[in-house]
Queue: 3 jobs
Job 1
Amino acid sequence: MSTRPSKDLETFDNPRPERDYTIHIRVPEFTCLCPKTGQPDFATLYLDYVPDARCVELKALKLYVWSFRDEGAFHEAVTNRILDDLVAATAPRFMRLTAEFNVRGGIYTNVVAEHRAPGWEAPPPVTLP
């Protein structure tokens, strides 16, 4: 069992690749360092995706997120980097990463980055009576 941070994003086969369904993941303990001051930045990450052939393995995701703890990064850059790495690992139909950073200097920052596979369209919403 690994107890070290890792940039490896393990995946597993989607158990229902014929169906569009959404996976919601909340990561409340993301940290990285401010590239200007070296002080820690804290965020909650919200990952929503519609898998295609592969899903991200949660322990691997935890170790991946942990790997940013000692890295300096601007909020916008780190959010897009994480999305790019997850898309490269899983090749989803759709993926959205929302990073809600804690207040720093009286300013809250939320960064939202998205990926859509070519040709994929979201199914129409269902309205129930």
Job 2
Amino acid sequence: MTGSSTQGIKTVLHPVSDLAKAKAVYAALLGVAPQADSPYYVGFESEGQHIGLVPGGGPQGMTSPVAYWHVSDIEAKLAEVTAAGATVKEAAHDVGGGRLVATVIDPDGNVLGLIQDR
């Protein structure tokens, strides 16, 4: 395979119905307080992983957890995975601070996330 390199899954986002209750459970599970804590997103950093809680599935309408692979070139990786049979669900877009995110759907309907940091 050629194209952009993938650095592994470092981020997993979970849709939650009750942010306060979910925050307490994940804080207990991970043994750390959240590093990002707002009404629209709570994020934890633990053991090199980022675990995010998204109330109501957020604007992307998540219905199940989504794992995000960190990549060096999101557009190249999108081209590579779509050529291999994936379908773009959410095109690459900036979510702040130069971080680009995108999601694709694999042939079985699973949602896969991509992240490119600046």
Job 3
Amino acid sequence: MAKKKKKGGGGGEAKVETAGGLRWLITYADMITLLLGVFIILCSGGAPSESEIQKLTIGLEKVFAIIEGGGGKTAMPGPTGEKVLEENTGVLYNAKDLTGPEALITRKYTQTFKGEIKKGEMEVKLIKDALVIRCLGTLLFEHGNARLKPEAYPTLERIAYLLSGISNKVVIEGHTDATPVQTSQFPSNWELSTVRATNVLHYLIDYVQKSGFSDSKIEDFQKRLGVFGYAQFHPAVKDPYDKLNNRIDIVIYHHKTEKELLD
């Protein structure tokens, strides 16, 4: 009578995993291969150019488009144009806005004002012809006042530093909510919005003048600046009385030297 083979034990046959149980190794191996390829690209040759970095970024976005980030948001833009969370700043962009030089420009300016954006004091966004740095609410001014708050100086100095390094046309727009203003200094919101924008312009110019730039550089900086006061007639939100309509928009217009925004 044949003896039955014992299962397990020191002298018994070892359990052999089926091929199905090893499927995780395929995914793991693919991931390691991809990472190895990335490191080889990064380590080979000299410093990559902006165009090479952009090509690499687009390639990685296509590979990792399905990876989920925190809170169910996709970490990279997918083919359907879903929204993505820009580096934990709380600002959402459409995937179509995250390609080409505009994407790098937006990331740079978003990171520069990361603290203010997280506090809900600023926004950085792309529009058709420009990049907008939006200073919201009471970041720069008290309600009904046009005097710059001292705590806003560091933010304005960072803005001035960025603008002094480019040659784009820049317009500073003053906006208010629909609450009527009628004082001896500001007969209406027209005057309030215009004086606010003008005070921001003067602070930016003063910063550049104190930074040791040449007279020609300072003059060129001033030539590129403009000021508009729109009162309450271009609200940022539907409710015209919402305090979010009180803002300064610094509009940086695109032109052929948009690469300067990245330097």
